[in-house]
Design brief:
With about 350 residues, this protein is mainly alpha-helical. The protein has 14 helices and 7 strands. The strands form 3 sheets. Strands 1-2-3 form a 3-stranded parallel beta sheet. The structure holds tryptophanyl-5'AMP.
């Protein structure tokens, strides 16, 4: 009996500028995984339609996220890089999953509750079904690992629930057709068509917080540009934003317990650790007891050192639209071949007359 081949998949929405949270929570991890794994990275443009149906610049945004992927060091030969709408099998599998997943599961998603606000009846059906499309993105490749920030954890749990329900609901058909793959779930060896995908949420910056309020997530939609560092910010802007970042009057703590009740200090130290590729403990060993006036310039220098080359590379790559479009087109073709294979089997499993 074969086992699932390890495969990494992740996606980024083309809505607004990428920021340091996206970089540390996702892109930096994508780059680290490309040497050890087969990886597929996707600009999830269909997801953006859940925010606004008409975007004046969706094509531009899609290209700019792709340029950011490349500027961070993702190799389009080694990895498959493409935009979601080129591969219609994502939406096809999402439909099947809409018929597997329960409305109650979708209603419980905190992201849906946040985005729909008080008037849920008036939210689009697409916003409610968003996690079903996300599960399809991952499972149409039968991906086993998904690097994401902490905010996507609940969606990844739902992806596992959908996979598990599909495997159970269709277990006889899967066995009959010989499409089952063995996997270990806890102590148990089970057989299924879709893997129970593992989220990869590791390191010291899985949830980068706003520079203006350490209790709020750094986000593309925060009205204050000072709350985030954008990947498009120049060196002066980065230095200024870190200088203005909210802190408290006490010096940096000497141990991890000292961060309790000090979310801004915790956030800045987490950012430093992630940028330097070291543990928080190591950062504290160097800066514990020192004032923010000493720590902030060191953090700014490190941020500029990491982000300036990415920024320059993004501008260089973005100037060559033909190149970016070519990468997405070619990646789309490679992705589509794999997705077609899965969908042929899914249609057979659910019993559609589609060949
Ligand atoms: P999106 O586009 O909002 O964010 C892209 C990635 O950045 C991470 N991230 C953060 N990490 C740390 N701190 C933050 N403040 C922060 N803000 C964002 C996100 O966790 C994410 O990894 N639903 C997804 C896109 C998606 C997807 C997928 C991801 C669609 N299909 C399949 C993985 C697999 C989203 O909206 O991410």
């Amino acid at each position: 009996m074969s086992e699932f081949k390890q495969l990494v998949f992740s996606g980024v929405q083309p809505t607004g500028n990428l920021h340091l949270g996206n970089y540390l929570g996702a892109l930096q991890k994508f780059v680290a995984l490309q040497d050890s794994h087969d990886c597929i990275y996707c600009v999830v443009d269909l997801h953006s339609l859940t925010a606004t149906l008409v975007h004046d610049d969706l094509k531009e945004q899609t290209r700019s996220i792709a340029a950011a992927f490349l500027a961070c060091g993702l190799d389009p030969e080694k990895n498959i890089i493409f935009n979601q709408s080129r591969v219609p099998q994502h939406a096809e599998l999402a439909w099947v999953f809409n018929c597997v997943a329960r409305i109650g599961w979708m209603n419980r998603m905190t992201q849906f509750k946040d985005k729909a606000g008080k008037d849920r009846e008036n939210a689009s059906l697409g916003l409610l079904a968003y996690p079903s499309l996300m599960a399809a993105d991952i499972l149409v490749y039968r991906a086993t690992h998904v690097p994401v920030g902490d905010d996507q954890k609940q969606h990844l749990e739902l992806t596992r629930d959908i996979a598990q329900k599909f495997n159970n609901d269709f277990s006889h058909r899967i066995a009959e057709l010989g499409y089952g793959v063995e996997m270990q779930v806890g102590e148990e060896a089970v057989n299924g068509f879709f893997p129970l995908t593992e989220p990869l949420i590791e390191g010291s910056a899985t949830r980068v917080m706003s520079l203006r309020d350490g209790t709020k997530k750094m986000s593309k939609s925060d009205p204050s540009d000072l709350s985030r560092i954008n990947l498009t910010d120049d060196a002066d802007t980065i230095v200024r934003k870190i200088r203005k970042a909210k802190t408290d009057p006490a010096p940096l703590p000497g141990d991890i317990e000292g961060f309790v009740g000090r979310p801004e200090a915790d956030n800045l130290v987490g950012i430093y650790a992630a940028l330097a590729g070291i543990s928080r403990e190591k950062v504290i060993a160097e800066f514990g007891g020192k004032q923010f006036s000493e720590f902030k310039p060191a953090l700014a220098e490190l941020a500029v050192e990491t982000l300036a080359p990415i920024n320059a590379e993004m501008r260089r790559i973005s100037a060559d639209l033909g190149y970016v479009d070519g990468v997405l087109r070619e990646g789309g073709e490679r992705a589509r071949q794999r997705a077609e294979e899965t969908m042929k089997k899914v249609y057979e499993i659910v019993g559609l007359l589609a060949d």
